[in-house]
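tmp note - glycerophosphodiester phosphodiesterase
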Amino acid sequence: MGRSLFLSAPALIAAVFVPSAIPAVAQDFGQPLVIAHRGASGERPEHTLAAYERAIDQGADYIEPDLVATRDGVLVARHETEISGTTDVAERPEFADRRRTRTIDGHTVTGWFAEDFTLAELRRLRAKERLPALRPTNARHDGLYQVPTFAEIIALVRAREAETGRRIGLYPELKHSGHLLAEAGIDTVDLLLRELAAAKIAPDDPIYIQSFEIAPLRRLDAASDYRLVQLVAAEGGPADAPDMRYADMVTMAGTRRIAEYADAIGADIRLVIEIDGTPSGLVSAAHAAGLQVHAWTLRKENAFLPPSLRQGDGDALRGCPEKLWTLLARTGVDGVFTDDPAIAVAARAGATCPA
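out:
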């Protein structure tokens, strides 16, 4: 989730809205799903089995793997096809000649790309924390974990379901599907459907499939009955529909068009809450069109929170995401993506900010 390949990390919502006064005791504004954004990525390097397992232990309803593909057609979990920000590939001299400059969805990106590696080669790399300045504790885990395949994530979920006796949902995102198909001949839609079939994951199982692009979702809608989620950001538009803006997609008319092929909208928090912290109207419009709304992303660090929800000085310090949860729940959202499932689960149960 998120398009941080093209956005500077933190400060995604910091100056966007100033919440109105929130009661000290949490109110019952519903029970949104807790969706573990890249696993418990606030506590472990993102998109590692350790992050997913920690999210499951913390009570997340769904875990969210971003999916890209290897050269030999295996779906793996990375935030982007460019992998130098989340692995140690830049420190591996044997792969120095794999460094490339590519244009992805209109943006020039230089680095190492998953589609240039076989799975066996990717296995030689180790994951690292993407935001070490904000999450130095996570960085202590650098070098410990491999890049997991989607099949391994499914196996983890099934093992933990057997251990815990509860259902654990999957919420995969197809990243840059159009680019991978056009530039590398890799069809991630087809790969995903094959893997789901092989794993016997049915549309009525707890699974959502998401994309910022429109074409992959329309293909999935035509080929299957899985629940589909159109992602929308606060700026820009879908890479495969250059004349379309996300802002137009979240109007009453826009949500009705999304409902033709999708079941939910995955929306940047800035599209869900107004500057004063009140509901924007997106949830009402989406619900009227028969769509759910899942908001992204709830994070604990001051860097990602508006000024009124920060605590202490320093971007890496813990602020008060519990109040942001309450604001989101008040809008009627059906789910919330979070880097910190334990905090979200507690907030859903009524927890307030620690003193």
